[in-house]
Amino acid sequence: MGDVAVGARSGHDGEEHRGRPVEAAVPAADSAVTSGSDAGATDDGKATDEQNRTEDQGSGGSAPGPRKPRSFWKELPILIGIALVLALLIKTFLVQAFSIPSDSMQNTLQQGDRVLVDKLTPWFGSEPERGEVVVFHDPDNWLAGEPTANPNALQTFLSWIGLMPSAEEKDLIKRVIGVGGDTVECNGTGPLKVNGKALDDKSFVYAGNTPCTVDDQGGQFKVKVPKGYIWVMGDHRQNSRDSRYNQNDKNHGMVPVDKVVGRAIVKAWPINRWGTLPVPDTFDQTGINDRSSAATSLTVAPQGIALVGVVPLAVWRRRRAAQAASEGR
Hey, CA dihedral for 77, 80, 84, 85, is it positive or negative? Predict the structure, then answer.
């Protein structure tokens, strides 16, 4: 075997061993023979490399050990910051709390109640509907002469992030009685009528009040609500300075829809008064949606204009298609 191994190493190997004893070449031959088990040597080499790599990593290599978790006090400011951002987003786009400052909505709402107002749906083009309780910005100095709140720094901050009702914003809360196109009227003590339909408002008007107020300051009226406006009244009819008593302002007592903050949906506080604020059934009675022909024509007019514009365009496109087809033949 040793001779065969030596012969297999070519003539160049013979040059290397020329002039040397044969015994000196035998270890080389043995080395050549054992080269058939080089896989074992390679494995040993790999194991050595892996051991070296592990040692390198242990002494500051590229695979550090698990990170030590941050302490609670280091993470607390981050958590507070996230909570503040979420509170601001919720207040701006979703829900905001408001405090009831007066008795004008009794007994539906009491002074000091906290309500949650849906601010999301107006972002999708939803407009107030009859019977809803809505919060709106003062349209034209309705709150003149009302006392101004003087909140402390903490109350101001909590109001800013939406965790407390705002004490500085000049907002009002009333019930929507008429929307764009409606005719609303009060004669004598009532009933209050919308589009000629009498409202059965016993379920929400303050006990002992008449639906209409007999006075010469605005309690007797018949108004047509323009498109883009609403007519609002308080449930405590004899104690509410609402659309009736602001007919001399620039909007004639109407509230522009773009002044509406949102619909009050829940009485959230105090807890013993928790409850929803649904639309009374009387606003869904048959015939109340019948508006004047003028209002109907305003609603249909844009559709008619669109149709008039689309027909000539469709005819023109058909002619172009027919002409292109004839030219392609």
Answer: positive
